[in-house]
Amino acid sequence: MNTAARRIGRTLALVLPVVLVLSGTLAVTRVSWSNSDSGSVLAAASSKQASTRSVPRAVHEVLRDQLVAELQEKDPGVALTRLQQESDRRPSIARHCATIARALGRAAVAKYGPQGAQKFSRPVCARARNASGP
Prior knowledge:
mainly alpha
């Protein structure tokens, strides 16, 4: 019975990552990245909502959402300052600094337009990258 359990475990170890990658790839290809087809976007949004209920969100995802909301209420400068503070304070956030900064940039462009968002641009993640290594 021990060998049967090992065989099942090895099979799952090989098959499960492939299934997860394929399902993730299919989910990304299903999302319409333009605003022309709202049906796919709604399907992707409802799928995301369903998955967030069943899986706890990572700390950096929660921070990203908080900073985007803060950007909407105030301005990108405030959100970028807080991102820098959190990155300096917590190495786990510093690893995700660039991803969060890109999300803030997209939100700033949506709110202020490209030229307006550019006024708030500054290097935020440079210290975080040096602190967390390559």
